[in-house]
Write a structure and sequence with these properties.
12 helices, seven-stranded antiparallel sheet, eight-stranded mixed sheet, 878 residues, Immunoglobulin-like, alpha+beta, 7 domains
Amino acid sequence: MKYLNLILGLLCCSLSLNAKTARDTPTVSCSPNPFVEDITVSFNSKTTQKASIQFMDLLGRSVLVDSIQLITGMNSRRYSLKGQSSGMYVLMVNGQNWSRTQKVVYSSKTPSPSDSFNVVHYDIALSIQNLASKTISGTTILTIDPTQTDSLSTIKIDLLKLAVTDVKVNNTVTTFSQNDSELYVVVNRKNSPTNDSLINVAITYNGQPETDPQWGGFYFSGNYAYNMGVAFKNVPHNFGRCWFPCIDNFTDRATYTFHITTDPTFKAVCNGLQLPETINGDGSTTWNWELKQPIPTYLASVAVGKYEFIKYEFQGMNRTYPVWLAVVAADTAKAKQSFAKLNNALLCFESKYGPYPFDRVGYVGVPFNAGAMEHATNIAYPNYAIDGGTNYETLFAHEISHMWWGDLATCRTAEDMWLNEGWASFNEALFLECVYGKEAYLSDIKDKSNEVLLRAPKNDGGWYPVSGIPQNITYGTHVYKKGALMVHTLRSLMGDSSFFAACKSYLNKYTFADVSSEDLKNEFQKCTSINLSNFFQKWIYSPGHSDVVVSKYTFSKVNSENHYRFEFSELQRKNTHVSESLPFTLTLYVLYSTPRIYFLQLVNGTSSWEGAFPQNESIVGWSVNHDNKIYLGNRTETLLISQTGNVAVPNVLFSLNVQSTGTGTGGNNLAVTHHWVGPLNEKLNEKGIRISAERYWTINSYVNEGFKTWGFFNYDGTPSTYLDSELINKTEDSLVLLYRAFPGEEWQIHTENTFQPGNSKTDKVGRFWVNDVKSGEYTFGMRDASVVSISEVLPADQKESFMLIPNPADDKLLVQFPGKVQVKNIYIYSQQGKLLKTLSINTVITSTPINIDFLEPNAYVIMVELRDTSLSQLFIKK
């Protein structure tokens, strides 16, 4: 992922070369996106020119290269990524002095069974008896609507390790073959009255259904048998195939009838409405259910147990519908208490998203120990959450919200699972807001933000966008928690009126349909003037995050008033896209007064605020986004300290040991912010130090005279934590703590501390014990003799005066000057300022090739030393 960020960041920066370049740069668009077979790349060029086209994967590897001669006006060319893996790719279009990039999502797809036919109905008749045997047997009838009648002779059906004994097409026995995961059925079209008639395929089978090694599948446990409709490890994740023959994907929808035969005293609970049961001659019972709304296979369900029903009618927005809770008799009282606010959830989601879309609200208790499953109208709900309390309210709210977000409108591909799970996780917070108020909503959002910042890269093994997620982490922290934060941020940007109007419009348009992130973006765009393309590119299609930080602080006294000016910058971590427009909240902590809150706007990555206060009021601290209105890469905790002792502040990775509370009446107030981005590091009073590009702290305090506290700054460079692993790449002896009193000042080595490594000086774990914590900014640095200040290498105001061809480059890089130039030396630096290579030139040249095959794929700085100045540029090694 890191190479994708570097590629996008560099090429986006290269667009601002000069006015002529801007005029000559064509617009580039792709359609469809996401795409399955082919994608059309269109150009609107203002001149005749050549361009190179390259598709790259997330590791920077080229998968398709082409060139095109653009003519004035519209141009287009069609491409296929057949043979590549599903996922996100980067389209890079390079002209002579310009570059364009765009993220595209490719779904690798061999022809699906549903390309030539659709299953419109499943009739599932199963015997689930003698649960100790852990087997099922029966017949499923697929009613098929052929879409390619002339070529349909054999159909492929998904079925996982269940033995087929008989297949009939329109009541006539037919030939079939089977392997562990697929069933091939010969279709005899002569038995159809006409070529376009529906086809009934009856498949009789038996066996022990599979469970997924990680999560999902079919379970037998004591007096229970039940399915969980997705598989976390198996791909595809749809897991209807583990218990009935089907077309197992997110896009093929059908209605259902169920006929489940159980032993006496057992009941079977399925999707939809219950039909009259049948008492059989052997004492068994067949339970009949019907679902009239079309759903994908992973939402079909069955649960067998000794159930009792809690039933009541709920008055919805447009109609009354039944609510059924199926639990064992011993849990009925607890279920009533645990689901006490279910009606509140239904009222909440109907008011925000529209009428409930199914015929029944249903939950069925199962002995599952790892969550719930949103089967349509028949949510498989863990018995541990039916405890008579309210500890799991957000779990039932999450699942019922899936009836809109996931069951009504379903992600087209697993790579867009945030459309299901991210939204349902957001709805946990929305439920809390509806029931308990806005503070409860914001508290839940804060908890999710903490989880993402602290654990998402660790849990999922890296930094990922919420759309285009790899299949092995479809059900990870990025999808659930970060997905929820993306929805929350979108809500804040659009405002409630536009946001919820867009939700209703989207769900109305895509009723019982499959969707993509682009579908959501395009529908939401109709309800707002905000440019959602920029939002989706930065927040949805790109990994990492941004932070808004104070980059400069100034104070002056004017006419007995205290004047302040704050300048703000947007910093990124694993994300290179600058926000066109981003609202944020500035909280100022004022001496002897209440905090002042200002709502500001970041424009193209920068902003400022200035104001005056009476002489008796002064600013003693600040924080950005303390209200968590949007998702940013920082966390602020405010502390009021009145006693000595230990104070742990885990959400900002900091702890205190208060030695003295001092004397005074104002109390001891601290605001501690942990930034999950590297600090602005343009000023360092000592060379040979590599500053952290991963994180830093801001501490603001107003304390009593004599207040003293120790502070503990813990470092962890182990790769799995994603905290300091980029900085700490050798022994900890070289690690230092850096400090500056205000943003914009020089960083200095902090000396009033005790360095405490862990068990060894190579385990990359330890802390700095600061003897007396003061207001200011703190970060880590690593001594490295080969490091210079990056500001010396790449001045911010330098104009580009040479070209690097190509850029990105593989093994060779050509340095091209506009004319003859006296060059002394050429240097290559890492982004952290480490010198990697020196080339002595000492002659007049117009160009020179450089071998860069020794570099790892990453971004680097090349500096050209001339007779009286130096010039620098960034480049990418693929």
